[in-house]
Amino acid sequence: MIFENYDPSKEWDDDKHWHKVVINFSPGKFPEMINWLYTNMGKPERHARWRIIDDTIQFKFRYERDYIMFTLTWQ
């Protein structure tokens, strides 16, 4: 499982027009979320970013449709 998917040489906010979601971290829920990305999105490594910071999981989506489906499923 990929725990983080972003380019650490860039700032998190460099992708200006991406759609962002912040969720409270839950160890049991995190693997399910990542599996959801791979099941429901085409090329999630290319069209989504995620990382764990402190007690949150942060996601960014290139396309609004993926952002909407993710938030409807997980928030």
Task: State the gist of this model.
The chain is of the alpha+beta class.
Give the radius of gyration. Answer: 11 Å
Amount of helix: 25-40%
Unreliable runs, pLDDT <50, ≥5 residues?
none
Structural shape: globular
Which key features would you list for this structure?
3 helices; three-stranded antiparallel sheet; alpha+beta; 75 residues; globular
Structural write-up:
The chain has 75 residues and is an alpha+beta fold. It has one domain. It is built from 3 helices and 3 strands.
Summarize the SSE layout with pairings.
Layout: E1 19-24, H1 29-40, H2 44-47, E2 48-53, E3 56-61, H3 64-74
Antiparallel strand pairs: 1-3, 2-3
